[in-house]
């Protein structure tokens, strides 16, 4: 049965047997192999991610197709690193992150690389109703709830169900009442490295009680390489005629505003920094871009955005089945210490492009629904595909 989330979702993963040794194993990952992979070239080691969070075992997994590779930890189901070749064929880590498990566990770590939920993005005052019954969520963003609350899925240890050379499937059972959300949500997320050099993320979930669901990945990207000074020189294109303006707490007003003649017009590729300091009320509220774009697309997996680094030539294409894309230009980044290779990340040294349903959708009747009922399946897919600019 399909979900009530605005359209029918489809997900298709086609794993291909590839020659690279997988790093690490989990107590429930019966097909996993012991690590022999050297991860020092991505600024982290498997040993720095091996440990316990409570009574749960955390480890690091490497998946690859021989050209690009990703390191995934089951703490928060996070992408710790993503190595792709630049226009000279040299490997570049394009995802920011911390150097070890300990730093990912610190309060306010910024959701680096994590799967966020039960509801990605913001919910006004952490409140919503289902069938006229009110629910109150954990508040962790001033007066609002952000990315699931203080104990969102980014804080959980996921079970590793299955691992191949180029994919890893993670599982989480979120109980009824978790962070205030109704219903026990049974979630599966599969990361796969595709044959055409994409990092594919497939999501699937069911519930035993009517609830709301909006899962996404919160990777911070810099296509010039993690630790590079800025992303304002990156060229961005987004297939979107409209965006959702926000109030002073970054909650959508409900308006679907045209990007025409505004700094939010990325329909033709332009540098992220071109208009970022424009005299625009919405940019002042967010300290830059921190807004949801309404995507020009039909149902199904479609190309909706492209980003290019002028320094490395690395180009990232984003494909998604989702109706929205949150563009965050790293406005709140400041002296982020203990990053990979003991680096420190500064202001606008990364961007996020989070495929999603719209923020505060449970309280906005004109936004696509995020309600999931028993007997339905939440199912969606997004891919970050890499090439080099010609």
From TrEMBL:
<keyword id="KW-0119">Carbohydrate metabolism</keyword>
<dbReference type="GO" id="GO:0030246">
    <property type="term" value="F:carbohydrate binding"/>
</dbReference>
<feature type="binding site">
    <location>
        <position position="290"/>
    </location>
    <ligand>
        <name>beta-D-galactose</name>
    </ligand>
</feature>
<dbReference type="GO" id="GO:0006006">
    <property type="term" value="P:glucose metabolic process"/>
</dbReference>
<dbReference type="Pfam" id="PF01263">
    <property type="entry name" value="Aldose_epim"/>
</dbReference>
<keyword id="KW-0963">Cytoplasm</keyword>
<dbReference type="InterPro" id="IPR018052">
    <property type="entry name" value="Ald1_epimerase_CS"/>
</dbReference>
<dbReference type="GO" id="GO:0005737">
    <property type="term" value="C:cytoplasm"/>
</dbReference>
<feature type="active site" description="Proton acceptor">
    <location>
        <position position="354"/>
    </location>
</feature>
<feature type="active site" description="Proton donor">
    <location>
        <position position="218"/>
    </location>
</feature>
<comment type="similarity">
    <text>Belongs to the aldose epimerase family.</text>
</comment>
<keyword id="KW-0413">Isomerase</keyword>
<dbReference type="InterPro" id="IPR014718">
    <property type="entry name" value="GH-type_carb-bd"/>
</dbReference>
<feature type="signal peptide">
    <location>
        <begin position="1"/>
        <end position="19"/>
    </location>
</feature>
<protein>
    <recommendedName>
        <fullName>Aldose 1-epimerase</fullName>
        <ecNumber>5.1.3.3</ecNumber>
    </recommendedName>
</protein>
<keyword id="KW-0597">Phosphoprotein</keyword>
<keyword id="KW-0106">Calcium</keyword>
<comment type="pathway">
    <text>Carbohydrate metabolism; hexose metabolism.</text>
</comment>
<feature type="binding site">
    <location>
        <begin position="121"/>
        <end position="122"/>
    </location>
    <ligand>
        <name>beta-D-galactose</name>
    </ligand>
</feature>
<comment type="subunit">
    <text>Monomer.</text>
</comment>
<feature type="binding site">
    <location>
        <begin position="218"/>
        <end position="220"/>
    </location>
    <ligand>
        <name>beta-D-galactose</name>
    </ligand>
</feature>
<dbReference type="InterPro" id="IPR008183">
    <property type="entry name" value="Aldose_1/G6P_1-epimerase"/>
</dbReference>
<keyword id="KW-0732">Signal</keyword>
<dbReference type="InterPro" id="IPR011013">
    <property type="entry name" value="Gal_mutarotase_sf_dom"/>
</dbReference>
<dbReference type="InterPro" id="IPR047215">
    <property type="entry name" value="Galactose_mutarotase-like"/>
</dbReference>
<dbReference type="InterPro" id="IPR015443">
    <property type="entry name" value="Aldose_1-epimerase"/>
</dbReference>
<dbReference type="GO" id="GO:0004034">
    <property type="term" value="F:aldose 1-epimerase activity"/>
</dbReference>
<dbReference type="GO" id="GO:0033499">
    <property type="term" value="P:galactose catabolic process via UDP-galactose, Leloir pathway"/>
</dbReference>
């Amino acid at each position: 049965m399909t979900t009530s989330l605005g359209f029918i979702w489809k997900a298709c993963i086609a794993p291909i047997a590839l020659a690279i040794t997988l790093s690490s194993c989990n107590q429930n990952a019966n097909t996993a192999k012991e690590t022999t992979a050297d991860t020092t070239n991505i600024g982290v080691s498997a040993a720095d991610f091996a440990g316990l969070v409570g009574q749960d075992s955390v480890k690091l997994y490497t998946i690859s197709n021989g050209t690009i590779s990703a390191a995934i930890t089951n703490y928060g189901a996070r992408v710790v690193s993503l190595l792709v070749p630049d226009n000279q064929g040299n490997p570049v880590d394009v995802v920011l992150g911390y150097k070890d498990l300990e730093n990912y566990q610190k309060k306010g770590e910024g959701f680096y690389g994590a799967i966020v939920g039960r509801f990605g993005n913001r919910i006004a005052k952490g409140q919503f109703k289902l069938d006229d019954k009110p629910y109150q969520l954990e508040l962790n963003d001033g007066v609002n709830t952000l990315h699931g609350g203080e104990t969102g899925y980014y804080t959980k240890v996921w079970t590793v169900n299955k691992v191949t050379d180029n994919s890893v499937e993670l599982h989480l059972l979120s109980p009824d009442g978790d962070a205030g959300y109704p219903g026990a949500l049974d979630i599966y997320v599969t990361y796969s490295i595709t044959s055409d050099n994409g990092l594919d993320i497939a999501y699937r979930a069911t519930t035993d009680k009517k609830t709301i669901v909006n899962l996404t990945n919160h990777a911070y990207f810099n296509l010039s390489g993690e630790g590079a000074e800025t992303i304002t020189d990156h060229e961005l294109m987004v297939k979107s005629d409209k965006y959702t303006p926000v109030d002073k707490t970054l909650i959508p007003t409900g308006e679907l505003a045209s990007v025409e003649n505004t700094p939010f017009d990325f329909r033709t590729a332009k540098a992220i920094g071109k208009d970022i300091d424009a005299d625009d009320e919405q940019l002042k509220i967010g300290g830059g871009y921190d807004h949801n774009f309404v995507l020009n697309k039909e149902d199904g997996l479609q190309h909706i955005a492209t980003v290019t680094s002028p320094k490395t030539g690395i180009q990232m294409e984003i494909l998604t089945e989702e109706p929205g894309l949150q563009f965050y230009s790293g406005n709140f980044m400041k002296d982020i210490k203990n990053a990979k290779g003991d680096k420190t990340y500064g202001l606008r040294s990364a961007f996020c492009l989070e495929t999603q349903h719209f923020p505060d959708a449970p309280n906005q009747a004109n936004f696509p629904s995020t309600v999931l009922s028993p007997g339905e399946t939440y199912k969606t897919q997004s891919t970050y595909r890499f090439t080099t600019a010609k």
